[in-house]
Amino acid sequence: MAQPDTDGKKKWVYAFAPGSAEGGADMAELLGGKGANLAEMATLGLPVPPGFTITTEVCDAFFAAGNKLPEAFKADVMQALDNVGDTVDARFGDDKRPLLVSVRSGSRASMPGMMDTILNLGLNDKTVEGLAALTGDSRFAFDSYRRFIQMYGDVVLGVDHGAFEDILENFKNLNGFAADTDLDEESWREIIADYKAAIEREHGQPFPQDTSEQLWGAIAAVFNSWYNPRAETYRRLHDIPDDWGTAVTVQAMVFGNLGDNSATGVAFTRNPSTGEREIFGEYLPNAQGEDVVAGIRTPQPLTRKGARDAPGTSLEAAMPGAFNELRQIFDQLERHYHDMQDVEFTVQLGKLWILQTRSGKRTTEAALKIAVDLAAEGLISQDEAILRIEPTQLDQLLHPAIDPSADHDLIAKGLPASPGAASGEIVFHSEMAEALKAKGKDVILVRSETSPEDVQGMHAAVGILTARGGMTSHAAVVARGMGRPCVSGAGTLRIDTSAGTMRAGARIFKSGDIISIDGSTGRVYAGKAKMLPPQLSGTFATVMEWADGARRMKVRTNADTPRDARQAREFGAEGIGLCRTEHMFFEEGRILAVREMICAEDEEGRQQALDKLLPVQRADFEELFEIMAGLPITIRLLDPPLHEFLPHEDREAAQVAAALGMDLMRLKARVAELEEFNPMLGFRGCRLGIKYPEITRMQVRAIFEAAINAQRKTGQAVRPEVMIPFVAYRREFDVLRRVITETADAVQRDMGVEIPYDVGTMIELPRAALRAADIAGGPAGADFFSFGTNDLTQTALGLSRDDAAPILSNYLEHEVISTDPFVTIDQRGVGELVKIGTERGRAAKPDLKTGICGEHGGDPKSIAFFESIGLDYVSCSPFRVPIARLAAAQAAIKRREAARLRASPEQE
Amino acid sequence: MAQPDTDGKKKWVYAFAPGSAEGGADMAELLGGKGANLAEMATLGLPVPPGFTITTEVCDAFFAAGNKLPEAFKADVMQALDNVGDTVDARFGDDKRPLLVSVRSGSRASMPGMMDTILNLGLNDKTVEGLAALTGDSRFAFDSYRRFIQMYGDVVLGVDHGAFEDILENFKNLNGFAADTDLDEESWREIIADYKAAIEREHGQPFPQDTSEQLWGAIAAVFNSWYNPRAETYRRLHDIPDDWGTAVTVQAMVFGNLGDNSATGVAFTRNPSTGEREIFGEYLPNAQGEDVVAGIRTPQPLTRKGARDAPGTSLEAAMPGAFNELRQIFDQLERHYHDMQDVEFTVQLGKLWILQTRSGKRTTEAALKIAVDLAAEGLISQDEAILRIEPTQLDQLLHPAIDPSADHDLIAKGLPASPGAASGEIVFHSEMAEALKAKGKDVILVRSETSPEDVQGMHAAVGILTARGGMTSHAAVVARGMGRPCVSGAGTLRIDTSAGTMRAGARIFKSGDIISIDGSTGRVYAGKAKMLPPQLSGTFATVMEWADGARRMKVRTNADTPRDARQAREFGAEGIGLCRTEHMFFEEGRILAVREMICAEDEEGRQQALDKLLPVQRADFEELFEIMAGLPITIRLLDPPLHEFLPHEDREAAQVAAALGMDLMRLKARVAELEEFNPMLGFRGCRLGIKYPEITRMQVRAIFEAAINAQRKTGQAVRPEVMIPFVAYRREFDVLRRVITETADAVQRDMGVEIPYDVGTMIELPRAALRAADIAGGPAGADFFSFGTNDLTQTALGLSRDDAAPILSNYLEHEVISTDPFVTIDQRGVGELVKIGTERGRAAKPDLKTGICGEHGGDPKSIAFFESIGLDYVSCSPFRVPIARLAAAQAAIKRREAARLRASPEQE
């Protein structure tokens, strides 16, 4: 809040200078984010260029008065400006030692680039000469002046910036100059004259030579920019109220180009690539910040150590005083901010000025090391260390990556559907992928889109590339589940499977050509890209261990194969939350029996086929139970529509008919009979088992025989969880629970072993969520709920995952949604259903186990939501298990923190 | 509750006799439904055969004692039996005037046919001779005796009834008898001897000659039948608790075959076909009830008037005393029961006995007349009259019907998908249907299933028959909307469109063969069936008028065409609740422009095609606005997936490509591009308009230009309601509301007329129901919600309507559901979403208009639910408007009644 001045007037202006500031970090409401931060840095004693902040209350007064600056505050500003001049030995408007200032906006919330900024204010025809003399660099002085005129003309006086660009372009053309750097002092003088003439012509008034007039104009312009369309749109999108207004910060300009005892640079307090505790960064002697950006001169290293690997004298050697001051400031900053900092600094005539400090960006590896080190140094707690890591970043560590420093031949860009990178020969057919893999080749399976029939081929491939489908298309989901890199929806590629070609613009790639894909970026390259292998450091293990100690929710994995299960256990999975039995059905040697079962004329025929499937399915489960060694496994009964298993192309149908000794027409008739308008909403899930209980019986027998065998072998108690999919009505659950119980009882009797087991259901339909109390309640209700948020999202939103990609991209464009609802759960819609289902289920059965097995189980934002509604576990694909462990820990820490704050509001 | 007797013992037995009864209609808990009703009839003074009821408490005691009758109550029974004998001048076990009784079960809730009954109890080797002497009909007496032995042997002694049937069959075969009626007294005597031998052999004990022993055995058997599997299943399905138990009623048998002054008959107090107030029915002199059923003798009319049209002497003439007594009793019954009664009576030796009275079944026409007359006679109120009509019965009146009295050649049975009947030539192609219609032929369109491309053909046909699809398949929904009779899902038919044949078993029907379908029963006949035309009586109008006065909800119609709109207004629709603009798109002369629009390369191309559609769409709307003359019309923006409009067969695709001057491959590519895995969850609804706002602009322009033109023409103020379909997010609504507002403003400016309008949305996705407050709230939220319960059912249940038929039939079989959720709303699932949507929407916007436009809008049970949650209106297909008006009135009356009861619980 604004403090009344001694004479009762409100305080309009808050000054800051090294070692002292009016206001501090907690006054962003009044001073804006920037002003508050500068005040804090100043209070810390950092050598920030002095300045002052004009409060948001002045902004209010400005608009209340009809876009007029209150006269009363001008004297305060002039006084503050004098104090600034004293600090830097300069004076505003002075010909000899002119004080130049920047004028910037500063809202309570960050609105990067949305409002206006003016630099070098205070230059005029006279002070520019002073600056030239002072710096000994006339060219720099006049270039600065023309920049200021241009900026001021555009922002304050409303002269179209095109006018200035035209003048400069014309001048360069007339004089044969290519770059701005070709222009000398004289050239800039001429341009300045033209600029001033343009302003007088367009604006009707000359460019103001009175530096005070310049200042009032600039302050008013910044205030007015609060209502520019760019800023208004930004506020609407980010729910920032109009009446917050903006503060204005006026700060002395400092120059790193005043000779050899001046410099400018950027530094990190620790190594942002490795996380090592060492000063890292670069500087340019006798230069301004723009010179670094322009890239004309090669920056030099900061430290002697750094100079061993890079050319040029280090700052440490060239300006030991400034360097030592910088080093001390870095320690101070880390102690204050408790994090690695990214600092911009300028040395002006030997004096160090800190322009900005903020948390530094870093690689995942560095993030882990810094967090662990900061905790070891006592600067942060373990909980804080956990919170410092962005969970999705871990992906980088778990997969090989394409070396970003190498040159690659980019041919297309799709969606980063499954992380990791791979190089291999193009193949267009799944069978070919398997055949080539058998020969030891690395292949990339390239398809317009994939279907369940491609699963074996995807497994055989080192990577998958599709032209159609989104982040949650079949290709993407299966690839993530398998841990295969995948780029999906690379829409510019034209894939002709029958011709065996892939067109990328004018280029044509054929079967056998080598390409590389980067599933973390969606990029596709011609040829073999240079790879970086995955590396899991000790700090990774430390952070995971801390996370496991902090989280409440268990983390399971979605795994259908021994390979997935092993991978997931390596990554720390605490069980299998979803084992999809149908994936097993597609494997060679089984699919034929599955097809025989589907095409059977009667129950007897089905039973014959099921008898063939029983031993293979049992063997699959047995291996899974052995690998998971007593950890819980939720096995879902057959779910997908049966026609997914049948051949849809004539050639294949003929082969299958021959193999089954079946009339081709009858096979085709069965395929046609099972075809559906909307298979997602069709004959699938529990509907299959209710119609053909013999399928359920076979699966349950396989599960229990496998469980008992595995238990005998490993000595670990096994407790199978049998999951009934796609339930909407309690009675569906009852019908199948009875089949399960009868079969399980029979197996236990036959084998003479009793094992405890649970029967639960997937909650993946809105009706199931609403009727959760029915489904869990009473005797023999569901023992567990596993929320199938993929299908729940499809049904709640009325959006087919396989058809969603073009719709979602249009919706992202129109800001209907901000994130893909198949990636991050739609909390307010789908999330409410999960919440309702959990609450009602638990009200009916307090010890109901609840978890999630949709794609959202591996998404940190979604995991935070699941923590907030108290689910017992999340289950995700193997490669997301570490991410989920970390995200679950963060969610739990934040929830505890929030609970603590609620419990003791007075403490805060 | 059982009253203690004077000596403190519980009262086990409640007697009844004409003019007096212990207990009454309100004691069903103790006496069972039957016992309570008999008590009530007796109390009224009706001449019911005397008897007594053994309470459910005896049943409890029976089971508590291990299936033993309490000794204490036997004396009471024998005393009651003596009293009964006194009343009818007979004695239990007496050789001369034997009292025969029936022993029947009677539960608190009706459980028809689930438990056991024994007739003619009291016959033995001696009393049968007395009965023979008394009736002068030995054959009758011995036939009755052998029936009793058979029934008793089966029910009480547990002898397999097959044993008795074998004896009878053998006897008939040996003696060359064809029918039971061929057997004389001697034959029955022989059979009785064989029956008794069979019992002694199977049961190990002789058939009991002691009539008391017979009675105790029969009572115990009835009690035991409470736990027979049939009864247990029935109770489970109807939630009847096991511990209710059953009462047992013992009642004197009376005989209408004791000579010429005896008779038996059935009468209605009013004419059940026409509703006329006249005694209606028939009787047989000197006969038992079985004789009427056996159909050997032709019954005679009751009244002299009836005798004018039927052969035989009337009861009125033959037995004037009994007839007059009957007439007085009928008046008394109607005054007491306030309804037309169906009465069974017997005259025994000149004395009239009433065996049963209940509300009589009647035709719809009679139901209307009786209700109106009873109200006019002051016997019931108008509200009660309204409640007396089963709304769905009205369907019979609104469509022609197949004459049930004529013989027809039934060839298949499907679902009664759209009521009414039709005869016509078989056609298999929609184009052929149109061509033949143009030649004046009546055709039945026969398809495996229909798609939107068939709409014109369906319109041209007089009826539709499909082999696939349920009550809410495309064929069914469109047919109901059009008022075309439809039989869907006639699964035994094999339709081969290319061969032009329909196989029904071994019979083959070809194009041009005449068939008839009855959409009210699902029956399909070969040849032209005899039809009854629809007739709307004055009483229909009266009931509708009363209903309109009683209901709270408005009734609108779903209508897309002027024909539908006119029909619906005739049936009393108060507006259009759903006008689907896409149906207009399929009409000839438009579909090409629609296809051009869909296949356009860019917005400009789309706009060119839309410019062609604008005038036709405007003309459609204009006619609708004129017909509805100021009544509200909700127009839904384009909803279905675009590929529904494109040709899918090669031949048609080539034609379309030629007509559009478009490359065939490009057309096919576009078709492929728009194809979706799950079109129901795909690129449709508001997603179309957000991607292609120019389509929305065209439609909105057409709506507003039409509205202003119609307003000018009719002078009636028009207030269009523009409906945005398939909304899940508020922002979708906002994006399209802006397009609508801008276009509507432009039209109003252009035409210089301002008209008020509303913009609302269909709530047809679970997310929309949950986020209803977002969608309705704040400035420019939705002005109305129309619940699209078809799609809401599909998404909430995860069940595609077009694929549901086989799943639902399996579910009905397994009792997962009791009614098709697409016909009657799933209250506990989908209904909760409608309720949530209504509550949250109204909380955010109190004056939000709410209605329903799914198929459920025409279903009485669903309408009752919509009344209970306070929707403002329902909208249904034109032919269901009268049904909805009546159902809405009934729902409102019941709701008011319930509210009244809640308000004054003490009164009741």
What brief labels describe this structure?
homodimer; 908 residues; alpha/beta; Dna Ligase, domain 1; D-amino Acid Aminotransferase, Chain A, domain 1; Glucose Oxidase, domain 1; eight-stranded mixed sheet; eight-stranded parallel beta barrel; 46% helix; 17% strand; elongated; disordered N terminus; ATP-binding (chains A, B); Pyruvate, phosphate dikinase (chains A, B)
- By CATH, the architecture of the largest domain in chain A is named 2-Layer Sandwich
Instruction: Give the uncertain stretches of chain A in residue-range form.
Output: 1-6
Largest sheet of chain A: 8 strands, mixed
* Rounded average pLDDT of chain A: 90
* Largest interface: pair, residues per side: A-B, 49 and 49 residues
For this structure, the quaternary state is homodimer
Instruction: Compute the number of strand runs of chain A.
Output: 32
Q: Predict the CATH topology of the largest domain in chain A.
A: Dna Ligase, domain 1
- In CATH, the homologous superfamily of the largest domain in chain A goes by the name ATP-grasp fold, A domain
* N→C terminal distance of chain A: 18 Å
Which sequence of strands runs across the widest sheet of chain A?
A: 13-23-22-15-16-17-18-14
Task: State the helical fraction of chain A.
Answer: 40-55%
Alpha carbon gyration radius of chain A: 34 Å
